[in-house]
Amino acid sequence: MALKVKTAETKVVLVNLLICMVVFYTVYYVVLSVCFAVFKIKMLDGLAPFDFKTNPSWINPYYLVLVISLEITFFTCGLLFALVVEEWVWDYAVTVTIIHIVITSVVMSEFPLMLHWWLALGSGVISMICGGQILAYCLFKDNFIYPVLDDF
């Protein structure tokens, strides 16, 4: 059985992925800016979305800004992805997260091995997928694609 991929479908997927990436980083920097202002941190670090080296401490306002902005960004993007890709939120959420991990590794010149960063990222992805999929189901339940399990 040969794999048949139509160019138009691939193009749509890549355009949607590009839109999701732009939305993700735009939301990330907007949320970071708001969090920096709320916590009265004087300098917004342009590399903050990729910072996994900050020592975890609940009394460190910079660390709190990083964690809070990560979680808010992931949840908000899940809702926004539902508007872009309809029922495929989980797929784009995982893909955007993998790309974010790769970009983080390249920017920081090191693969992130910090447990606290992975826990924050994991909970963010779960909230992104759950929030986005629930919204997609509520908005598009009339044309939601259900898997055919008869073939298994």
Quick synopsis:
This protein has 152 residues and is an all-alpha fold.
Mean pLDDT: 87
Shape: elongated
Range of strand content = under 5%
Distance between the termini: 17 Å
What is the number of beta strands? 0
Q: Helical segment tally?
A: 4
Rounded to an integer in angstroms, the radius of gyration calculated over CA atoms is 18 Å
Helical content (DSSP H or I, runs of 4+): 55-70%
Structural class category = mainly alpha
Low-confidence stretches: none
- Please provide the ordered H/E string of secondary-structure elements: HHHH
The largest sheet, given as strand count, sense and whether it forms a barrel, is: none
Describe the structure.
It contains four helices and no strands. The chain is mostly helical. Helix 2 runs parallel beside helix 4. The model has no long low-confidence stretch (mean pLDDT 87).
Q: Topology, pairings included?
A:
Elements: H1 7-38, H2 61-85, H3 89-108, H4 115-140
Helix pairs in contact: 1-2, 2-3, 2-4, 3-4
Characteristics of this structure?
mainly alpha, elongated, 152 residues, 0% strand, 68% helix
